[in-house]
Every structure is written in C-alpha cells, then in structure tokens.
Amino acid sequence: MPNAIDFTFSDLIAGYVISYDEAGRTIELNTSDGRPFRILITDTTTAELVRNLGDGYLDATAQLAKMLAHGRLVHVYGIFYPEDGGTAFEAKHLLMFGKEPDEFRFESPGWWVDQIGKIADFYLDEEFGPGATAFDYRGYRTDLSMEGAKAATARQETDTISRLVYGLATAYIMTGRERYLQAANAGAQYMVDHLCSIDRSQQIAYWYHALVINPDGTERKIFASEFGDDFDAIPCYEQIYALAGITQVYRITGDPKLREIIDLTVNLFQHYFRDDERRGYYSHIDPVTFDPHSPSLDDGTRTNRDRKNWNSIGDHIPAYLINLYLCTNEQRYADELADLCNLITEHFQDYDSSPFVQEKFHGDWSPDRAYGQQLDRAIVGHNLKIAWNLARVNNLRPNADWVAFARRIADVMPGVGMDRQRGGWYDMVERHTGPGERFHRLVWHDRKAWWQQEQGILAYQILNAVFDNPFYAKYARESSAFYNGWMLDTTAGGVYFNVLANGNPFMLGGERSKGSHSMAMYHSAELCYLSAVYQNLETEEQPLELYFRPKPGAFGGTLRVAPDLLPPKAVRIQQVWVDGHEHADFDADTMTVNLPHSTEPQAVRVRLAASTVAFSADTVRIGDGSATIRIAGSLTPPRLGIFKEAVEGALDHGCRRVELDAAALVYLDAEATRYLAWLKQERDFELRVTGAAGQPERELRDSELDQELVR
Asked: Where in the numbering of this chain does the STAS domain appear (predicted)?
C-alpha cells in the first residue's frame, strides 16, 4: 500500500504570485510548471530581499503586502500540515528578488562583478591572510572548511590550485584589482615551478596530481591520481584543468613562458591521449608508459583501459580552448573546437533510450554502462554543459546539428533534471525509470551542487542571448534565483558546495567545505564572468569593462579583447584606456586593440557595449568628489535601472557633483527626469547636464531642470 503523508514537514516552494488576499493573508502561487499552491501568511512570517556576498540583511517584511503583486517570482519556505481535505502550507520565510515585481537584483549592473570580487577576497584571505598582498603558495592548502579554515594536511592538488588561479585571473579581468592579478601570477608561476614536468625529448609537459609539503619543508610529488575511479592512472581531465588557470593568466598577460607550457601540454593531449584512428581523447593513460591500452588500467576493480568520456572530450572546450582561441585567433584551436563539437553531437545523443546523454564510452565509442559508480546514470550538469558550449562554438563555426542538439537538451532537461517545485538542478540521476516510476531516481539524495547550478544558469542564459527564446529566459532567471538565493554563504563568505533541495546547506563529510579536490574558485568565477557577458552585456545591453595587463611584445602588439565566442558583431568596443589614458587605436568591430610600444607591462581597460544597445550610462571619470557619466541612446523606463546604478553608484562613492554628458542621448523619458528631481532632493548634490539637444533638451526644460542644463 502507498505511504501516507500524515506528518508535518518543512519545505520550499518557488513560484509566481497569482494573487494576494491581504484580508485573508493568503497567496495563490503557481510553480514553474504551473502547479497551484495556496499559502498562508502568519504573524511570524518574515521576508527579505536576495542579497549578494558582502550585503547586509535586507528586510522586506513591512512591505510584504505591497510587494506580493501578480507575476512576482518568490521563494517561500514554510511548513506543510496534512489535514482533512488537503495539505495546508504556512509560510515562515519569503525570499524576494527585487523591490519591483519585474526587478531581479542579480540582473543589475555590477552584481556579478561584486560577487566575483567577494569570492576572490574569501579565498585570498583564508589562504594567505586577511588583506594579504604577498602570495607565497607554499602556504596554500587544498582543503578549506566551510568557514574557510585551512586543514592540517599539507596537501596541494594541481587542479585545485589551477581552479583558484583561474578564478583570481577572471576576477582581475572583471574588476581590474591589482591584488587578484598578483595572486594569479604567483599561483601560475608556482604551478610551473613545482607541479609541472617537461619532457624536452618528446616536447611535452605533464602535470603532477598533487604535492605534499613535508614537515621539514621538502616536497613529495604525487604523480598518478589518488582518487576513486581514477586511482593509479593519469586522467585526461586533470591535465585539462591544470591548463585552466595558466591559460586565463596568459589571456591577460601574453606571458611567453606560460604559452610554452600551454603548448607543451596540448602536445601531451595530441601525442598520448588522442585516438587518431577512431577520433577523440582517451580518458586515462598509464602513468609510466602513457599507454591508454595498458593492462594496468584495468585491474578488475577499475576499468580505465581504452575508455573515453565527457570529461576527456568536452572539458577541453571551456577549460582552456575557447580562451586560447580568443587571445590568439589561431585557427588550429577553432578547428579543434569544431572537431570536439562534432564528436559530442555524433556520439553523446541517446534519445531513443533516455532523455539524458550517454557520456561514458569504450574506445570504439560503444556505450560503457558499467563504469565505476556512474554505471548507467546521468550527471545533470554535464547535459546542460553540453548545451551552452555547443551554443558558444556555434557562434564561431555555425552548425545546424550542434544547434539542434543544444536546443533539444534545453527543451528536455527541465522535465527530468530541474526541481520545478523549489528551483535549482539535481546532481546524479538514473538514466531510466523503473516500472511504475514517474521520476528518474536520485542516486545520492536530493542535494544540489554549486557547479550544477552554474550549468543550468549558463545553459539558458547563453541560449537565450543567442536565440532570444522566452522559455530560455524564464529558466535562466529561475536558475539564477535559486543559486543567488541559496548557494551564497552570506555569513562566512564564498559559495556552498551543496545544498539540499529546500536550499538548506548540506554539511556532512567532504561537502562541508569551501576547498577540496572538487572545489576551488573555477565554477563560481566562470559563472560570474559568463553571466556578466551573456546576461548583462548581451541580453540587458549593459556596458561591460574588462582589464588586461599585456607584457612588452605580447600577442605581437595586438590585444584581442572579445569577451567570448559571441554572435558576429553582437558586441563592439566603445572605449579603451592604456595606463590610465584614453587610447584611440582600436578596431571596435573586431574587438582588437593595437598596443603602443612599451618596455613595461601596460594596464589596459576596455569598455564593451552591445552593438544594438538601446541605452548606456558609462562612468568615464570619477574622483575628487565629482563624476562624469556619459549617457547614450534612449532612456526609457525599462532602462532606468541602468541609469540609477550609474548615478547612485557615483553618489555612494562620495561624489557631490555629477555631470551627465548627454551629447549621444536621443530620448529622455519624463520618468527619468522625475527620478533626477527626487534624487537631488534626497541626496543633495550638484547636477550638470552637458550636450543635450533635441527631445532630451526639451524634456529637461519642461521638467524645470533647466538650471542644471549647460550647453
């Protein structure tokens, strides 16, 4: 007989407000997939606005009745009471995502930039000391507790250092803060000096699995992997992720020493992991012979002989290949990206059997459904990761088959891998349902890992930015809401490894950590960066600034600053500064900057904007108590948030004088002028408007703001 739910339990409901009865204190709510819930607000119900890392608590309890407007996305945590005739649900906590129903704080300018800075500060402070400006990686440790404390072990794992270096380098690209670049450079150099082996006779480089610092200060190298299914082998994915950090640093600096190591490691893939006859890359090689067919790889308990998998094929794309192509424009990398996408499209689809891809294979590409702990199981995040990486490479080399595969994943996955009751994405599930089963069974429990949330957010953000589909936009927003609402540790800092389905942190074993074999800063930083590119820059048309520090002679004097593999002419350079001075020698459409001759590294700041941008508000100068903001395009009510962010950001910076350069402004809505009048009253600052003409000039005069109008 079926189990009866006749006990109380707490849980989370994520959905959209249909109506709110203030007298009866009830909310009618529909989940993402349209299932209705009736929710009771009690005297002890509290509400808050979603907050970023570093933000204080933002109470919304007093404004709750006004905020529960039709269509608002809200997360409600409460208690189910099974009672006669149904199950009551009483809310204990509501999480709101903006002050207005159509406002989402995580889509505002600066959200992802601020977040990556706070994550970088967390890791640097915990690894090297609060506010550290010197970074000796002999003190680095792989394992960090949930609070950030370093474990007693003296272990340093190559991939984890590389993931941290990637994150720090990306934080510099997004913020320009010197601390992050110094730490990334130090980490990259430490990796090359202590964890990389170069075989000049074969012209290859390979990476140790880990390093242990002995009590006497000597080092003990660990070559073969010591983890799970990879034990005593050299897994391809570890060599791949060893490149993630130094490639991102190379993208910033063009350091030829790093490029040499990158090229030698790519040679390792080509010479020893690549299957020239059947195509693709083997998942493992023997640590002594480098033979993917060695009997030592198959000892009866581990089955790594003659195997291929998602990690050995697909992980090349995001970990280093796209970034290497972006900064070099070398067509061999574009060819490799296309070849990998073809392999994924040809071999990973298995929709006659399962809604999930097949991601484990024998060397001949026949499915391997008996491998290790995965067996015939699916990792939800890998399905999603395939979608957004196919979409990225399609922007470089258009291919209808890749697009069809990516869109099929996007269409199928919400129904089998997404939690449409609570939001977020699950981990590992059975690829097939059993007799009488409606849901694909969860392998471990209903936990949700931080990196799988990244995959869900980016899959739908990127597909929406490229294909402009309202369903993709919806799932991108819902995925981002869960991540920013529940994965950020706003108390201790950083990002939780796992939360349960209801958003509560999972705090057992190795998952009670912020640093481990699996976790450093890679996925959280990649999410911040690509969300800023695809959501803010391309979809919201908000300008984005990127920072580089090329060494003398780097990249042959041509710095390529395209933020990603975007659709042709979707984004262009708006403005460039070199060593603090405006620089005019650039090609806006190809997004290349011709660097002036220098014998020292040059600080390059680039402002990018969507080619079809409707409105932009760019702070071009700030300091000495004043700021100049260049506004362009049409300032309509939907774009008012961009304007507010720029003006209030200047005031929050301490500026008492704000000049608006309106020479490129073509339309000014009355709501914007009312906002300026109100803000001047509230904040008491000096406002000057220069260059206004046509309709904006008339609107300013009609609004009685003509005293601020300067021609």
From this structure: 616-711
Helical residues (DSSP H) of 21-77, grouped into ranges: 64-67
Inter-CA distances, 133 with 125, 178, 179, Å: 10, 9, 6
What is residue 491's predicted lDDT score, i.e. its pLDDT?
Answer: 93
The DSSP bridge partners found for residue 17 are: 29
Q: What are the residue ranges of helices labelled H in 254-303?
A: 256-268
From the number of C-beta atoms within 10 Å of its C-beta (0-12, 13-18, 19+), residue 85 rates as exposed
Helix (H, G, I), strand (E, B) or coil at 650: helix
pLDDT of residue 707: 61
Q: Are 574 and 544 in contact (CB under 8 A)?
A: no
CB 705 within 8 A of CB 673: yes
CB-CB contact of 463 with 469 (8 Å): yes
Contact 709, 689 (CB under 8 A): yes
H helix intervals, 50-149: 64-67, 111-128
Low-confidence ranges of the chain (pLDDT < 70): 1, 301, 613-614, 705-711
Residues 6+ apart with CB under 8 A from 78: 10, 11, 13, 39, 89, 90, 91, 92, 93
Residue 498 bridge partners (DSSP): 449
For 441, which DSSP code?
P
E-strand ranges in 431-504 read 448-449, 498-499
Strand partners, 709: 689
Q: How many CA atoms lie within 13 A of 4 on its CB side?
A: 6
pLDDT of residue 84: 78
Phi, psi of 42 (to 5 degrees): -110, 175
CA distance 687 to 372: 66
The helix/strand/coil state of 424 is: coil
The DSSP letter of residue 638 is G
Count Cβ atoms below 10 Å from residue 489 Cβ, excluding itself: 17
Q: What angle do CA 169, 175, 178 make, to 5 degrees?
A: 65
How far apart are alpha carbons 603 and 550 in whole angstroms?
7
Enter the tokens of residue 599.
Answer: 């014998």
Q: If phi over 0 gives left and psi between -120 and 50 gives alpha, with beta otherwise, what is residue 175?
A: alpha
CA distance 474 to 698: 38
**pLDDT for position 711:** 42
Indicate the residue type of 10: S
- Strand locations in 411-543 (E): 428-430, 448-449, 498-499, 513-515
Going by DSSP bridges, is the β-strand pair 657-668/581-582 parallel, antiparallel, or unpaired?
unpaired
DSSP bridge partners of 234? 285
Q: Name which of 614, 625, 603, 610 is nearest 686 in CA terms.
A: 625
Contacts of residue 485, Cβ cutoff 8 Å, sequence gap at least 6 = 50, 75, 95, 97, 423, 503
- Helix (H) / strand (E) element for 644: namely helix 640-652
Are 112 and 104 in contact by the 8 Å Cβ rule? The answer is no
Distance CA 186, CA 140 (A): 11
**Residue range 223-277, pLDDT digits in tens:** 999 888 889 999 999 999 999 999 999 999 999 999 999 999 999 999 999 999 9
